[in-house]
Design a protein that fits this description.
This protein has about 140 residues and is an all-alpha fold. It is about 80% helix and about 0% strand. It has a single domain, classed as Four Helix Bundle (Hemerythrin (Met), subunit A). Helix 1 runs parallel beside helix 3 and helix 2 runs antiparallel to helix 3.
Length: about 140
């Protein structure tokens, strides 16, 4: 395979997130089929949709990993941080869907929610910014 190890790992993550999304779709369907309202719990729906979107977002991350000028370790770290926060968000939606404890996790946030959201913002945007900078360097500056 003619793509870097860092790209292969990121593509694997995208595939695993997509597989998770498909499984969450089964859970969503089951809830819809058995509910008197024919609706899944809001967080089951959110988990399913976010996993689908994050799977494709991870594919985009993989493209930037492949074309980044940075070393493999930098690319893996930047992509890894981004993907860990993607999966963490999905995990929190799965938890709320399983517990059926809320239909809005920000209505009554638990202690540390603000810090977790700040970390998510810095992690996702920062990780991708590193990869985007590596792409810009390779495509326009160092070319």
């Amino acid at each position: 395979m003619d793509v870097g190890f860092d790209t292969r790992v990121t593509l694997l993550a995208a595939g695993l997130i997509f597989l998770l999304a498909l499984g969450l779709g089964v859970w969503k369907y089951r809830q819809m089929a058995t509910s008197p309202t024919h609706l899944a719990h809001p967080y089951v729906d959110i988990a399913h949709r976010s996993a689908l979107m994050y799977a494709f977002a991870t594919l985009l991350v993989a493209v930037f990993v492949e074309f980044s000028a940075w070393p493999t370790a930098v690319n893996l770290t930047a992509a890894g941080v981004t993907v860990v926060f993607f999966v963490g968000a999905i995990g929190s939606y799965i938890l709320h869907g399983a517990l059926r404890d809320t239909d809005n996790q920000f209505a009554h946030p638990v202690k540390g929610t603000g810090v977790a959201m700040a970390a998510l913002i810095v992690g996702e945007m920062g990780g991708f910014a590193v990869l985007l900078a590596g792409f810009v360097w390779a495509a326009f500056v160092g070319a």
